[in-house]
Design goal:
The protein contains 12 helices and 16 strands. The protein is elongated and about 95 Å long. Strands 5-4-6-7 form a 4-stranded antiparallel β-sheet. Strands 10-9-11-12 form a 4-stranded antiparallel β-sheet. The two termini are 22 Å apart. The relative contact order is 0.12. It folds into 3 domains: 166 residues, no CATH class; 96 residues, Pdz3 Domain (Roll), CATH 2.30.42; 85 residues, PDZ domain (Pdz3 Domain), CATH 2.30.42.
């Protein structure tokens, strides 16, 4: 919990400082007098005066602000009127407002680039046996297949029909994370995916091309369980028994660490994820039944009967044998050079920004699940988990949140930077600013919408914590 709290506070501090620093530097560049640069809201805990600007840290660390000289917020002496924000030309005001979200997006590019340059280990995109009758199973994917590249429906008619991952619209895959992102983009766009597959054990030769009908998945089903919905239960690992819990049903039946599971109830065990699914699904009514395992041990095939125990998880009852099934999946180190790493970072930031906007738009019109809206508890949870995994993973997490913060602040809501940009667009088109009456009305509406979004995000946080999502 201490790690989670510390990682969360560092995350908020970095992203808020960068966002507000964008506003601050743009204001200084336009010769606007900055009165205060605050990290956090509420009671001031620390302050320091540097030149004409007071830098402060406040008690509530969920945001920040840059207070500029403005005639609408207080008296301004005639000598300083030219340095007031409201007196600046429209392009300069728009530049100052847009600089905050732009700083977050530029930070995301830098953070993604750092991850690319540092290198990080991720799970190789080798898949376990797909769920029977699922989209993945219908595509022809089998246990142990490695997906090496994908192509979206919009690119099917690209330059040629080859399998060169560097041409014809193919995007190479290097990890399961890449696969999940490509699946999400395809479902959100209503596209099918062509996938290049190296079969389990294949050495040399061209990869096989399969069709994954992701267009059949509604955008409303895009959430953390999207891979499961497509039928991909996880990465491939061999069906080996790992640690066996003392006095559990597996130990009582004679299972030992290192046993290779050959079959379960007469069904051939192709990988660990499939075996785990079979075990958990063996008690649909909450009643455990004996399961016949055939295992290979030191060259001999043994038949062992294990009676699982029932564990209640949320609103479901699952069977457990109290032993690990599977091992560490194959990992791949992802590392890029200086130029390539920076280019890929910019591309990833663009894709994540577009995906975030697409997701938000579909949530508004009811085509995407509102469960995808996350609040501070989820952010804190992921901050702590990524920090425990290592510096590169935490930096990658910061990049994701920085993209989200930059995009969210560009939404046309009156209390956000995007709302102010909409005011300036109106002023640029009509030649006159938005009236004070409408400013007040829009401000109230924006506050109401933000309160609704925050309430929904907190509800989703608690629902995830309680296992309701």
């Amino acid at each position: 919990m201490l790690m989670t709290a510390l990682a969360f506070l560092v995350t908020i501090a970095i992203l808020v400082v960068i966002h507000e620093y964008g506003h601050y530097r743009a204001a200084v560049a336009c010769d606007v007098k900055v009165l205060r640069f605050s990290v956090g809201f509420g009671q001031v805990l620390w302050r320091r005066q540097r030149g004409e600007t007071e830098f402060v840290i406040s008690a509530l660390p969920l945001g920040g602000y840059v207070k500029m000289l403005d005639e609408r917020e207080g008296g301004v002496t005639p000598a300083e009127q030219s340095r007031a924000f409201n007196r600046k030309p429209l392009p300069q005001r728009a530049f100052i407002v847009a600089a905050g979200p732009a700083a977050n997006l530029l930070l995301a590019i830098l953070l993604y680039a750092l991850v690319n340059w540092m290198g990080v280990e991720e799970v190789r995109p080798r898949v376990a046996e797909p769920v029977a009758a699922s989209l993945a199973a219908k595509s022809g994917l089998r246990s142990g297949d490695e997906i090496v590249a994908v192509r979206h429906q919009a690119d099917f008619g690209a330059v040629g029909q080859g399998t060169d991952a560097a041409a014809d619209g193919w995007s190479p895959l290097r990890s399961m994370t890449d696969l999940q992102l490509q699946l999400t983009q395809a479902v959100m766009a209503g596209d099918d995916l062509q996938i290049q597959v190296r079969r389990h054990g294949q050495v040399g030769g061209e990869p096989e091309v399969l069709m994954l009908a992701t267009s059949q998945v509604p955008a409303a089903d895009v959430d953390a369980k999207l891979m499961d919905r497509v039928g991909l239960t996880g990465p491939y690992t061999p069906p080996l028994v790992g640690k066996v819990v003392e006095q559990g049903p597996a130990e009582a039946a004679g299972l030992k660490a290192g046993d290779r599971i050959v079959s379960l109830e007469g069904r051939k065990a192709t990988d660990a994820a499939t075996v785990r699914q079979w075990i958990m699904a063996s008690a649909p009514q909450g009643q455990a039944k004996p399961l016949l395992f055939e295992v290979e041990r030191e060259g001999q095939i043994l038949a062992l009967t294990v009676t699982p125990v029932i564990k209640v998880e949320g609103d479901q009852s699952r069977a457990r044998i109290m032993a690990e099934v599977g091992s560490q999946p194959d990992m791949v180190e992802i590392h890029y050079g200086p130029v390539e790493g920076l280019v890929l970072a910019a591309q990833r930031t663009w894709r994540m920004s577009a995906l975030t906007l697409d997701m938000l738009g579909k949530m508004v019109i009811g085509q995407a699940s509102l469960k995808n809206l996350s609040g501070p508890l989820t952010i804190a949870d992921y901050a702590g988990k990524s920090a425990q995994m290592g510096l590169a993973y935490y930096i990658g997490f910061l990049a994701v949140v920085s993209v989200s913060l930059g995009v969210l602040n560009l939404l046309p809501l009156p209390v956000l930077d995007g709302g102010h940009l909409m005011y300036y667009l109106f002023e640029g088109v009509t030649g006159r600013p938005v009236s004070e009456v409408w400013l007040e009305r829009l401000q109230r509406g924006g506050v109401a919408v933000m309160f609704l979004m925050m309430s929904l995000a907190l509800y989703n946080d608690f629902a995830r914590y309680l296992g309701m999502h």
